[in-house]
Amino acid sequence: LKDLADYLPASLATIVSYFSAEVTRGVWKPVFMNGTDWPSPAANLSNVEEQIKKILAATGV
User: Fold this and answer.
1) Which of 14, 23, 36, 46 could staple 42 via S-S, CB 3.0–4.6 A?
2) Where are the beta strands (DSSP E) in the chain?
3) Is the separation of the CB atoms in 60 and 2 below 8 Å?
4) Residues 6 or more apart from 23 whose CB is under 8 A from it?
């Protein structure tokens, strides 16, 4: 678990940064599947980012 905590922050930061940039640029448009709109990740992105920060702070990274 400690090894994972060593490498995870850099990976997560890159992933979160990428998705933030994509959402901000408006690259993700509404997608239709069986007549149902998929929700945009923009609404949940800040919540997920806060949870990741809390987890990383709790692990002491």
Assistant:
1) 23
2) 32-33, 36-37
3) no
4) 40, 41, 42, 45
pTM beyond 0.70: the answer is no
pLDDT for residue 57: 86
Cα 34 from Cα 21, distance rounded (Å): 28
Could you report the average pLDDT of every consecutive run of 10 residues in the chain (61 residues)?
A: 69 78 68 64 81 85 66
| Distance (Å, whole) CA 14 – CA 16 | 6
Other C-beta atoms within 10 Å of 40: how many?
Answer: 14
Tokens 């990428």 locate to 18
